Amino acid sequence: MTVIERREIALVDLLDRLLAGGVVITGDITLRIADVDLVRIDLNALISSVNEQVPSPWESS
Amino acid sequence: MSGLRYVYAICRPLGAPLQSQLTGVAGDPPRLLNHHGLIAVVSHVPERDFAEKPLREHLEDLDWLTATARAHQGVIDALTVVTTPLPLRLGTVFRDDSGLRTMMEEREDYFRRTLDRLEGRVEWGVKVYTEPEPETEPAASGDGRPGQKAASGRDYLRQRRQSVRAHEDKWQQAEQFASRLHERLSAYAEDSRLHAPQNPALSGVSGRNVLNAAYLVSRAHSEEFVELVDRTKGEVPGMRVELTGPWAAYSFATEFTGEGNR
User: Fold this and answer.
1) ipTM score for this prediction
2) Structural domain that includes position A18
3) Structural domain total, chain A
4) CA of A36 to nearest chain B CA: how many angstroms apart?
5) Distance (Å, whole) CA B125 – CA B123
């Protein structure tokens, strides 16, 4: 389906979904990575690494 | 290589084959594991990168995270062409196939119910930004002096009040616009979720993000939904509306009734 033409997806939009959306499975069998901690990835670390890079790597379109 | 099992999504048996040259996370092409009529879409990934400790470390490495997120999305995208996948959160890893099968069996009912709920539906992202003011009249700067020279202390206070009021008006207007838009779109969509506003340092986008929402819409109604959003662009000066999608229904994969987290 192509309702609108697909542009390069901004990483920040992707992370909204991949880190805060999706089914979270926290069984004993998993390595328990997919628990809530993942949502709280240290965004400060991300932001500081973004700021070191000019131009912003998110703007890939 | 055996390795660990990185799971992208659960879906029903595919009606058509996956695009053949797809590389997934860690460069491993996604494989389909069928269990009782449900399919887990899986890559085999090395323990040195995907065991709990290295994975946690990698997640704070922007380049690694970017590559992994894009690879994950690539697989979900390809799945979306041939089916309605139920996406799992980034970094869902199992030790082996048998662990994965056990999980699928335990959650079979939930997966079937959720797949039914999402069948034929996609997610659209809508964000609203306030445009940065073009000619900002310099308000009181750090040292307390207004940009325009005030003749007296009274002038200064008046200028300052005006500038604060203009700012507040703009905010109120932005919030009103965002909440009206959200109401309108929610009424059209089957479901909606609000994400936290995006941090401009992360998005690299100008203006302040006042709405960051996701809407669940059937494929059949998607064209109309897109038109609805398009019509709101330019409706209010100073507001920018951005549409992304169609996405797999990431934001709607969990029910908020608590049942999803058994």
Assistant:
1) 0.78
2) 11-52
3) 1
4) 10
5) 7
